[in-house]
Specification:
By secondary structure, the chain is an alpha+beta fold. Helix 11 runs antiparallel to helix 13 and helix 13 packs antiparallel against helix 14. The chain is globular, with a radius of gyration of 26 Å. The two termini are 34 Å apart.
Length: 762
């Protein structure tokens, strides 16, 4: 954590600056909090929200609750891949604080309802080549910035304003502390703030009185129909407002206590002036809704209109402590930080989308009513079916159930299960019908019951996704594979459809649907259509059944494989590892193929580059993207478990760290973190629907998972260290354990799993 050490070295400079500006009491409070944390560390102290904000991670550092609707976080004001989450750690300017953000995705969207406090002359400049207009901003230093779960703070150097953020479930709370010499200040609201994929299409601003404003921002981008209504209350009256339309037509008023309303198709912004002679702080509480201003107001009332900033922050800390306490871990300090930051990230998606009265905008554009549980959105299923959702079936069954009910609600509103659900929209991002394995897994593990979701309706929803004719599924049904004439990703489509189909077969079997089980089991074998024995790879085929010419397993173009090459997709048959091993000629040849994957160098393109999504690699194994996440565990099926142990420990040691660039690839809504948490505990769901986990090599010394019915599951790694990465023996509940997997049933029954570690291969 070298960057934190740098912060401590600058303590003297920070103290001098805050003394000059009159903000020294704030520093004292922060230092007291840090001192208390040092003497009696809580789990919050092991979470660093800056991990993933540099490099490829694409996370945001701002304030939110577990599964919170609001993600109040700073924006640097720039366009580009690095700023997809709004904030990029290497930057040194801030252009506002908006209420919605994505955690580690490959697409830039949201940034709704952006505020920015100002004092004195404003600084403006063009921040990137995409947006040619000057942007109001402030410089800042990481030495004067901090973040913990539910709280973010930064000092805006150019305006001498300290900004603090915290959040309720549907409300963002900002506290601006102006310097003692400041007599007047302003707060800018920018409803036109849009970056990357996002584009404003309609806005409205209503000034209700000199404390209260409301309105909406409607936008299009990754999600085509985004509606964010808001209701904001200031802690003290503003004396004047100035409203600007995108065409630069301004309307000013000194009578800010009178009702005012305006709208703009291309966006609105407004400046609110405050007299700061008596009170140097301005609080802004903003609740949002996908339905209406009235619902946003009700959300604010529910979260606490009269609550202070401290009240909100303390409630946020309490909720985060409760969430993090579900898994108690003992490990080396950096591993503790990595684990609890990963656990923190796992609670950022999916997230609550329905209002306090249960209403929300559905993917059909209509307003719907959630009754039994909140409606969740932001399902990055191509990523999260692999490990994030299986993680929740162990550690958070209550919210997992509500999420499954949200998936089936999407089906009833849209006609199909979601592919990539976001802000009340279906984006059809990525591929596969991976709501299927997530729902089947939850059903087989009894997360959901007949009382939650009718099993016949559930099966019909699964089957409808598999029997549609879009996304190459028509060819897949007719030929048994997706031909390359269909377009990009054809090999990946077949392999992922085959896994989803196998999952449907398991559901059919459980329901006694013999013919359906037989049909989808056969479709689960479609991966074989692409295997070429001559090269030992999964290859693209024509409609006539001929392998595509010019094959290069190292190439990333043409894209027959989704964000990957032939190496990374060659092993995506999680439901039939034994069959895959047979195709490769047996266990020894399969193990050799795995060895080659980790030792074969990457091939750069003509520009000496790799695609943006190829990062965190060991040979051809790419950890920065999801398709090969299960591969290190496949050695267990060859009788060479020590290689699984060596590789997973290598990945944890080399591709995760505690700096801002501590994630090797996009966080992808929790999948990157879920891989780490499972692996650190010593097991991983190679097949997310099999109800079992393949054993690896734990990086923690001790862990205890809280389970329903007051049960606990304990993991102990005796003699575990950076050198002792190999497993000498395993016991489960005191009995010798020789299997390479542990069942979900054994974990949920409670008990103790002990790994005895050594430096020697066993």
């Amino acid at each position: 954590m070298k960057y934190l050490q740098k912060k401590l070295l600058s303590k003297g400079i920070t103290t001098l600056l805050l003394t000059i500006t009159g903000l020294m009491p704030l520093l004292a409070t922060c230092q007291q909090h840090k001192t208390m944390s040092k003497s009696t560390p809580s789990l919050l102290s092991y979470v660093d929200p800056f991990i993933g904000t540099a490099g490829k991670g694409k996370t945001y550092p701002g304030a939110t609750l577990p599964y919170g609707m609001v993600q109040l976080s700073p924006d640097n004001g720039r366009n580009g891949w690095d700023w997809i989450s709004g904030y990029f750690y290497p930057d040194n300017v801030i252009a506002g604080f908006s209420h919605t953000h994505l955690s580690g995705t490959g697409a830039g969207d949201l940034y709704d309802i952006s505020f920015m406090p100002l004092a004195g002359p404003t600084k403006q400049k063009v921040l990137d080549q995409v947006n040619p207009l000057p942007v109001i901003y402030s410089s800042f230093s990481h030495d004067n910035e901090q973040a913990t779960p539910g709280y973010y703070q930064v000092f805006l150097t150019d305006y001498q304003i300290n900004v603090e953020l915290t959040a309720g479930l549907r409300t963002g709370v900002q506290r601006y502390t102006f310097a003692k010499h400041t007599q007047t200040g302003q707060v800018k609201l920018d409803l036109n703030y849009a970056r990357n994929w996002d584009k404003t299409i309609a806005t409205e601003l209503i000034i209700i009185n000199d404390h209260t404003i409301a309105g909406y921002r409607k936008s299009t981008g990754w999600a085509k129909d985004q509606r964010v209504y808001f209701y904001s209350v200031f802690s003290q009256p503003f004396t004047m407002h100035t409203v600007s339309h995108a065409d630069n037509q301004n309307t000013s008023s000194n009578n800010s206590d009178k009702h005012y309303q305006t709208s703009g198709q291309q966006g609105l912004s407004a400046l609110f002036d405050f007299n700061l002679k008596q009170q140097k702080q301005v609080l802004v509480k903003t609740a949002i809704s996908s339905v209406s201003i009235e619902n946003a107001k009700q959300n604010l009332l529910t979260d606490g209109l009269q609550s202070s900033f401290t009240d909100y922050r303390q409630r946020a800390e309490k909720q985060w402590k409760q969430a993090l306490a579900k898994v108690k871990v003992t490990a080396e300090h950096d591993n503790m930080v990595q684990f609890y930051t990963a656990l923190y990230h796992s609670y950022l998606a999916p997230r609550v989308f329905s209002d306090s009265n249960g209403q929300y905008k559905g993917p059909d554009g209509k307003i719907h009513q959630a009754t039994r549980s909140p409606r969740y959105s932001f399902f990055s299923l191509w990523d999260t079916f692999r490990a994030l959702h299986p993680w929740k079936t162990i550690t958070d069954t209550e919210h997992s159930k509500a999420m499954m009910m949200s998936l089936i609600a999407h089906y009833h509103e849209y006609g199909l299960l979601p592919v990539w659900n976001f802000q009340g929209n279906e984006t059809n991002m990525m591929m596969g019908y991976h709501a299927v394995p997530v729902l089947v897994d939850a059903y087989l593990k009894r997360i959901i019951s007949e009382q939650d979701i009718n099993s016949e309706q559930l099966f019909n929803a699964l089957k409808k996704s598999a029997m549609q004719n879009d996304f190459g599924i028509d060819s897949y049904k007719a030929l048994g594979y997706v031909p390359f004439e269909h377009g990009n990703w054809n090999v990946s489509l077949t392999l992922e459809y085959a896994f989803d189909d196998w999952s449907i077969a398991q559901m059919a079997q459980a329901l006694g649907k013999i013919q359906d089980a037989k049909y989808f089991t056969q479709r689960g074998q479609n991966y074989r259509q692409h295997f070429d024995p001559a090269t030992g790879f999964m290859r693209a085929k024509s409609q006539a059944g001929v392998f595509k010419s010019g094959f290069d397993p190292l190439a990333y173009h043409p894209e027959d494989y989704c964000e990957a090459n032939a190496w990374q997709y060659n092993f995506f048959v999680p439901h039939d590892i034994k069959g895959l091993i047979q195709l490769h000629g047996g266990r020894n040849k399969f193990a050799n193929k795995l060895d080659q994957m980790f030792s074969t160098k990457q091939q750069l393109n003509d520009k000496g580059e790799l695609p943006e999504w190829i990062s965190g690699y060991i040979g051809q194994y790419v950890h920065g993207n999801e398709p090969a996440h299960h591969v290190p565990y496949l050695y267990q099926y060859t009788g060479q478990g020590h290689k699984t142990q060596q590789r997973v420990r290598q990945i944890m040691a080399e591709l995760y760290n505690t700096a801002p660039n501590g994630l090797a690839g996009n966080e992808d809504a929790g999948q990157m973190s879920a891989w780490y948490m499972f692996s650190a505990l010593g097991f991983y769901p190679v097949n997310p629907v099999a109800g079992e986990y393949v054993l690896g090599s734990p990086e923690v010394a001790h862990a205890q998972i809280k389970l329903p019915d007051n049960k606990t599951f304990t993991i102990i790694a005796n003699n575990q260290s950076a050198d002792n990465i190999y497993v000498k023996s395993v016991t489960l509940n005191g009995q010798p354990y020789s299997a390479i997997t542990i069942s979900h049933q054994d974990i949920m029954a409670g008990g103790t799993l002990i790994f005895n570690m050594t430096s020697e291969v066993h």
